[in-house]
Amino acid sequence: MFIRFFLLSILVGSSLNGMSQKSIHKKYDLFFSWGYNRAAYTKSDFNISGVGYDLTFKDVRAEDYVTTFSLENYFKPANLTIPQYVGRLGMYLNERTSISIGVDHMKYYMILNQNLEIEGQISPQASEKYADTYNNTSHDVPFRFLYFHHSDGLNYANIEIEYNFPLWTSLNMKHSWEVVGNLGIGLVVPKTYVMILNNDVDNRFHIAGGGISAKVGTRFNFFKYFYIEAASKNGFVVMPNVLVNNEKNATANQRFGWTQFYGALGFNISLSRKEKDNVESP
Predict the structure, then answer these.
(1) How far apart are CA 128 and CA 163, in angstroms?
(2) Other C-beta atoms within 10 Å of 177: how many?
(3) Contact 19, 282 (CB under 8 A)
(4) Mean of per-residue pLDDT scores for the chain
(5) Nearest to 97 by CA among 167, 8, 27
(6) pLDDT digits (tens, 9 = 90+) for 214-231
(7) CA distance from start to end of the chain
(8) What is the pLDDT of residues 105-163, one digit of tens each?
(9) What whole-number distance in Å separates Cα of residue 121 and Cα of residue 118?
């Protein structure tokens, strides 16, 4: 029923005949969106040092983690923040430009049992099993040697400036299609689990660094106040302060690029929406 009404509204709006076309003002309108993402990461060097060891694991590979789809996992209010999500709250500065704050919640899991080049050293006091000097030589890295994940998650809390370019608008001004793009900057606030030399800690949320991002996507607005968005977002994060343990006698740092694809639903709240007529010659 809703789909029929939706399609009928589009057809009616597109077929209206008139000499004037109305342009909706979005200035100072608020908007909110929520959706879910998939992410991919570049290889990265992971440097970690503590009492008796100082190591760099090179070209570490990682993947995201997808929560099994179900109505309960993705739509039950208590579970909304468990999958990899994107949430935004913003305001239009004018008809084309907006500013917003949001969180991109990704999950970064180191792939288990990789063969990696290692540089550094481990003393017998830190680990008798792995004690050695490593000179950029390749070694199998099992779980107890090194494993980590930013699983709750790789939280990119950011502010973005966005511009939208209209492609199509129905004559009744209820539906439109546009291309959107933005630039962002923010903080990285992960909750990181680290296993190193048979010692592990599931750390607390912590500001580990910062990042930048850029997005391009498409948005379909319907009935003025609702929209569906799909976009690709790319970013780079630098984390010089990854937590390793509660004693704070070990440190880790990492930097890498990421790509994210997401879909989201949103709605607008009109604070002072006005319309004006733009008279066009036939």
Answers:
(1) 57
(2) 15
(3) yes
(4) 89
(5) 27
(6) 999 999 999 989 999 999
(7) 37
(8) 999 999 999 999 999 999 999 999 999 999 999 999 999 999 999 999 999 999 999 99
(9) 9
Give yes or no for a contact between 33 and 265, defined as CB atoms under 8 angstroms apart. Answer: yes
- Tell me the residue type at 123: S
Q: Where are the domains of the chain?
A: 28-273
Cα separation, 105 vs 150, in Å, equals 10
Residue type, 8: L
What the block records as the tokens of 180 is 């959107």
Residue 248 sits at φ, ψ, to 5 deg, of: 60, 25
What are 19's two structure tokens?
Answer: 């000499």
Q: 123, 131 in Cβ contact below 8 A?
A: yes
Placement of tokens 């830190």 in the chain: 126
What residue has token string 């030589």?
A: 137
Q: What is the DSSP letter of 13?
A: H
**Gyration radius (Cα) of the chain, Å:** 24
Q: Is the pTM of this model over 0.85?
A: yes
Tell me: the pLDDT tens digits for 153-199?
Answer: 999 999 999 999 999 988 888 899 999 999 999 999 999 999 999 99
| CATH number of this structure's domain 28-273, picked from the four choices 1.10.10, 2.40.160, 2.40.30, 3.30.950 | 2.40.160
Joined tokens for residue 89: 């709250």
